[in-house]
Design brief:
Its main location: membrane. The protein is an all-alpha fold. Helix content is 78%, strand content 0%. The chain starts with 5 loop residues before the first helix and ends with a helix.
Length: 124
């Protein structure tokens, strides 16, 4: 006896795991962006430089935004996994619908990426 609609459930689970990996990667990058100035301070102290690096408000905001987007990606993926799992097992046919969450997360990441690019290029 097998699992009903196993292929669909397996694909749904793979999608969830992919979103979770992506969310963790975005959160890790956000942590790196926010804490990179600490690394620069330690390097400056080790090299006995007079100039100390201070944490930038822009870097902190971008780092926190990336962590929040990563959390949002994981939360929305978990919700979608549950809803799709119930839809797969339903007897009635239903439409897949559009993923506004994925588009919103993509737009958010794009805007943060543009800000990071400008921040690094211009040095806000």
């Amino acid at each position: 006896m097998g699992i009903r609609n196993f292929g669909d459930h397996a694909a749904n689970e793979r999608t969830l795991l992919s979103w979770i990996r992506s969310g963790i990667a975005v959160m890790a990058f956000g942590f790196l962006v926010e804490k990179f100035t600490i690394f620069l301070s330690y390097i400056g102290a080790a090299l006995h430089q007079q100039q100390r690096f201070r944490s930038s408000v822009s870097a902190q905001a971008v780092g926190l935004a990336l962590v929040a987007l990563g959390l949002a990606a994981i939360a929305s993926a978990t919700y979608r996994y549950r809803v799709r799992g119930l839809t797969i097992d339903a007897e009635a046919m239903s439409t897949a619908g559009r993923s506004r969450t994925a588009v919103g997360l993509g737009i958010g990441l794009t805007l943060i990426g543009i800000f990071l690019f400008v921040y690094l290029a211009v040095g806000l």
